[in-house]
Amino acid sequence: MTGRDRWTTAQAIVDSRDWTSADGSDHSVGRWHVVYEYTVAGERYIGKFTDFQSGDEEYLGPGDRFEIRFNPRRPSQSYYPELRTQTYFLAVCIGIAIVLAVLMILITIGNVRSAH
User: Fold this and answer.
1) Are 31 and 63 contained in the same domain?
2) What are the tens digits of pLDDT across the range 45-75?
3) Count of CB atoms situated within 10 Å of the CB of 81
4) In this predicted structure, what is the pLDDT of residue 77?
5) Could you please report the per-residue DSSP string of the chain?
6) What is the pLDDT of residue 93?
7) Residue 102 burial by Cβ neighbours in a 10 Å radius (0-12, 13-18, 19+)
8) CA 99 to CA 108: how far, in whole Å?
9) Is 64 in the same domain as 77?
10) Strands, E, within 41-97: which ranges?
11) Which of 29, 36, 37, 92 could form a disulfide with 12, with the two C-beta atoms 3.0–4.6 Å apart?
């Protein structure tokens, strides 16, 4: 573990979430904008993050609890360890596209061989 992975854990509660679709529809790929609150030593803090995924997936809703990590030296700094960044999301999409392309090539090769 390095850096932020060593930060202290705390329970957070979702205050709000908003969905922004990449193409303007309600059920496509896009991102969730989440605002949450957590308490450290009796002091209340607010955090925010943006998570990239499909709008069809179940997601954290207002009042839901989840675990965050905060900087023990600066409790106002926090992050959500399960966050899917845009880079991660794009890497997954590219990986899926590569697998599908390979499958299509293999199917095409199989069809050509069976025709001979």
Assistant:
1) yes
2) 999 998 877 665 678 889 999 999 999 999 9
3) 12
4) 96
5) --GGGGSEEEEEEEEEEEEEESSS-SSSEEEEEEEEEEEETTEEEEEEEEEEEETTS----TT-EEEEEEETTEEEEEE-TT---HHHHHHHHHHHHHHHHHHHHHHHHHHHHHH-
6) 60
7) exposed
8) 14
9) yes
10) 43-54, 65-71, 74-79
11) 36
CA-CA distance, 45 to 81, in Å (whole number)?
17
CA dist 35 and 31 (Å) reads: 13
Tell me: do 9 and 49 sit in the same domain.
yes
Same domain membership, residue 10 and residue 46: yes
The whole-model pTM stands at: 0.67
Task: Please tell me whether residues 109 and 90 are part of one structural domain.
Answer: yes
Per the structure, the count of domains in the chain is 2
Parallel, antiparallel, or unpaired for β 8-21 and 43-54? unpaired
Beta-carbon neighbour count of residue 38 at 10 Å? Answer: 21
Domain coverage including residue 78: 3-84
